[in-house]
Amino acid sequence: GKGAHHVLQRCPFFSSADGSSILKGLQPILEEQGMTQTIHDLGENGYLVMYINKTGSFATLRIYKDKLVTFDIQSSVVDGEGQRIQNLCNKLQDKMKDLLKGNIQKLKRLPAIVRGGVHDRYWPTEDERLIEYDIDDTVYEADSRYQNIKILHSKQFGNILLLNDDINLAESDLPYTQAIMGSGTENYTGKEVLILGGGDGGILQELVKLKPKMVTMSYIDQMVIDACRKYMRKACGDVLDHLKGDCYQVLVEDCIPVLKRYGEEGRLFDYVINDLTAIPISTSPEEESTWEFLRSILDLSVKVLKPTGKYFTQGNCVNMTEGLAMYEEQLNRLSCPVEFSKKVVCVPSYMELWVFYTVWKK
Amino acid sequence: GKGAHHVLQRCPFFSSADGSSILKGLQPILEEQGMTQTIHDLGENGYLVMYINKTGSFATLRIYKDKLVTFDIQSSVVDGEGQRIQNLCNKLQDKMKDLLKGNIQKLKRLPAIVRGGVHDRYWPTEDERLIEYDIDDTVYEADSRYQNIKILHSKQFGNILLLNDDINLAESDLPYTQAIMGSGTENYTGKEVLILGGGDGGILQELVKLKPKMVTMSYIDQMVIDACRKYMRKACGDVLDHLKGDCYQVLVEDCIPVLKRYGEEGRLFDYVINDLTAIPISTSPEEESTWEFLRSILDLSVKVLKPTGKYFTQGNCVNMTEGLAMYEEQLNRLSCPVEFSKKVVCVPSYMELWVFYTVWKK
Prior knowledge:
The structure is a homodimer.
Chain A: E1 4-12, H1 19-32, E2 36-41, E3 47-52, E4 58-64, E5 68-76, H2 81-100, E6 108-115, E7 135-143, E8 148-154, E9 158-163, E10 166-170, H3 174-180, E11 192-197, H4 202-208, E12 214-218, H5 222-231, H6 233-236, E13 248-251, H7 255-265, E14 269-275, H8 288-303, E15 305-317, H9 321-331, E16 338-346, E17 353-361
């Protein structure tokens, strides 16, 4: 196997045992594994011990002076190796408990991190927390003119669409689609709807069920549409099989010229649903142009909205408070004054609570 | 700071560049940081290079022969250090791209793992995936006669109750309580209900709102009740302020003797809600006694159920297919024959989909 198997063990403790007695105690266990050690005495900074064996497995033991011990072992994934490492960690753990005689405040072993595996399982949240997904297959991967497209299979969530390594939608994520459609409070029957983005077809599929007059979807990337039609069918059903249906049309083009065209024509919609990429996280000045871009889409969208119309969009994860505040500031700076409400929703595959906005003309 | 800051960088690549040219290329960048290197030439197993500086920061670079490079750096958390490490990783990453001239298949940096921090942020799922929570406070921690009790604060989920390091319920987890009460399909008005477990008071609080005739809750650990009354108020409201109310009573005792007593008295309930610990994961023979214990609770519960009564319980995460199958096998082996249905629900703080069961007499 190509993957580097990585086991992390963390042992913060409070004890009168000194570093050298811990070293002596653990040494026989690591020697048993055929590992040779190199000790670095860092003086007031404690000890660092490096273990290597001939096959290229290695481990580091770091003893800090302020009562923290960390142990890491990295090894190639081969049959039985995972179990061998777990057994070794069990032995080290028992020995640590023994050496420190109940003076351990915490002793924690983290699940192994697998790197270089066939399927990438680590997809951090928007607020940059480490999350391991239950990915067991890479269903599709390609670069389009616009972005990197991946569809990965999760044991529990079904297929997941990632654009530029950002989780967009999983087949389990009907709550996302329901939230961005107004959480079941709206009556779409006979209505005119414009979707910006939404290339996975999830919103389109749910809308079409509700007998609207006409849904127009503007999405830029044909390759995403094709991949989702094939691999995201629990989200889009058969709605992407054709770009035109009884009550919908898909325009494979950038939504900005579409919005401008409709604006000039004076065409109005009951609902505009913006399913484009999440709002920016950053609040730094260099991102000013991103916010301006976002505001221009908002301005154009509000322009094609009937006086009684509603604009729905996703925001960001609930922890990105600065980004959300910046977005709300944009809402207060539109050409046409608007009011808004927001709702926090749990989207299964996101692993973080997500904010959705409803915007309407004052 | 006490925490060991740990940045992991993973760079699987395909390239004609050999290990030694990567080494030479990265060397100046690491020397700049005042790090001294020790090179281990592992022959057919590639290279391992160890970097150390005087403050005790260290890094490992492992170059595998099968086109995988891993880089890890560990450093104490001090002001500005995190940013310095990110800058270093940026430089190494750029250099790698440069050296391998577009022959990198993937280059991925994972968020830092913080060990020995004041608040523990790593709580794996039932299927042992690594999950970092947004924990920013340890609200309560104590050992009772029965278990370790922790209440941690999550930025997005509010307070979270952990028993023996297992996430039980967060203040965000009304979907859990709704699911274990039958997902809104039941009419509890005027009904007799028995709760087994449920020390966080979430179910009790929701039930009492629905005007039942009488709810009896049997929970063993007074310390959990006290902690939740104080710190889980978004889940339990004021229902745990008194152990007796107009339509409920809390018996602070093990549920087994309670069930036996009610069984002998011939007392019957419309609903039994089992909120005890999740069903076992293991299917190994040594766990047989756990399954027997579980079956005996099921038998006792069904015995106190009216012929039209319903028994609700949580199962396990949807990925623990073997454990779930074993549980369903127990349901088919009860003294009184039963039928069951199950439902998969997204509980916000769990980070994995959870299975809930409804059981009724045939």
